[in-house]
From TrEMBL:
Localization in the cell: Endoplasmic reticulum membrane; Nucleus
Protein encoded by which gene: LOC107111935
Record pathway: Sphingolipid metabolism; Lipid metabolism; sphingolipid metabolism
Protein name (record): Ceramide synthase 4-like
Start-end of Acidic residues biased regions: 293-302
Bias kind Polar residues: ranges: 329-347
Record field: transmembrane: 84-103, 128-147, 208-228, 248-270
Organism: Gekko japonicus
Length: 347
């Protein structure tokens, strides 16, 4: 399935005009390559002078070599586009399937129905397929985690995937099926908007990307901070106690749901920062986007920050086109930028 999607997504990205950054390969150097293979990062100031002597190069040349070498290992835009493409396909299919299955179920509209007849609640085949599909998807995300694009919230994603897999598995074993379906459809509602937003971001279609992100933000904040606590958390904490006394499953389920809610609050904080920037200034800061990657920051940016700290000035940050724009320069919603001083440097 992944190979088929890759075969479709790569030509699609080319047809839609995805442009890759040109990456120059560093010249062969056994000493520097050996150091990089061992440490997977650039040298510090003490190691730099030693490597320069061993390789018979100047310090600046060694720094330049490591910058080029680090860029070679960064994920390409094509890889990120393909990753967002297949996730978009899954979330759209999953959300559509959930709506078709749950729209006429009584517990979708009345939370107390989640406990009617519990634990003797029959499992219909459509919900069984929906459960297996969700469990398989998040299991695949854990398996491919070492190979996926590393993002700023990488550790949070690991916690999220672990809690989600536990919740799906435990709710199935304890027959909390009705609660489980509500949790999954609430999450899919915003996830099916986030991944297409990333696709348009990689394509640099700014107006569509920013419009989708605002819609996604509204859906995310409402579903995760309003519907999830009122429809799920209140249901599992209080409604269940009206029928059954708390037992081990009660604490395990609610503990995992609270972990998810804490992650929702963390991600909501990041989204609100972006929305605040938009409504106050009419701009969005690129580095706050949820698809920003740790790998995007190479040794060149780090070297500039070190130099800026020494000089007592504010470091620059790279925009999506590879240029450096000072912190005082906002990114406009239409993708254009207007530098306010002479700190802009095109790489």
């Amino acid at each position: 399935m992944g190979l088929v999607l890759w075969a479709v997504a790569v030509p699609l990205s080319r047809r839609l005009g995805l442009q890759e950054k040109v990456r120059r390969k560093p010249s062969p150097n056994a000493v520097l390559e050996s150091f990089y293979s061992k440490h997977q990062k650039g040298p510090d100031e003490r190691q730099l002078s030693g490597l320069a002597k061993q390789s018979d190069l100047q310090t600046r040349q060694v720094e330049r070599w490591f910058r080029s070498r680090l860029r070679q290992d960064q994920p390409s835009l094509t890889k990120k586009f393909c990753e967002a493409c297949w996730r978009s396909l899954f979330y759209i299919i999953s959300y559509t399937m959930a709506m078709a299955i749950l729209y006429n179920k009584p517990w979708t509209w009345d939370s107390r129905e989640c406990w009617t007849g519990y634990p003797q609640q029959p499992l219909v085949p459509s919900i069984y397929v929906y459960y297996i599909m969700q469990l398989s998807f998040y299991g695949s995300l854990v398996i491919t985690l070492p190979f996926d694009v590393k993002r700023k919230d990488h550790k949070m994603q690991i916690i999220h995937h672990a809690a989600t897999i536990f919740l799906i598995s435990f709710s199935y074993c304890a027959n909390y099926i009705r609660i489980g379906t509500l949790v999954m459809i609430i999450h899919d509602a915003s996830d099916c908007l986030l991944e297409p937003t990333k696709m348009f971001h990689y394509l640099k279609w700014r107006k569509i990307c920013d419009t989708l992100f605002i819609v996604f933000s509204a859906v995310f904040l409402f579903s995760r901070l309003v519907i999830f606590p009122s429809k799920v958390l209140y249901n599992t904490y209080y409604y269940s106690m009206e029928i059954y006394k708390p037992f081990l499953g009660y604490y395990l389920m609610n503990g995992s749901l609270m972990i998810l809610q804490l992650l929702h609050i963390f991600w909501s904080y990041l989204i609100v920062r972006m929305l605040g920037r938009f409504f106050v200034c009419g701009t969005m800061e690129k580095d706050l986007r949820s698809d920003s990657d740790d790998s995007e920051k190479g040794e060149e940016e780090m070297a500039q920050e070190k130099e800026a700290k020494k000089n007592g000035s504010v470091p620059s940050s790279p925009n999506s086109g590879g240029s450096y724009i000072s912190k005082d320069t906002p990114l406009q919603l239409n993708g254009s930028s207007h530098p306010t001083n002479s700190h802009t440097k095109i790489r």
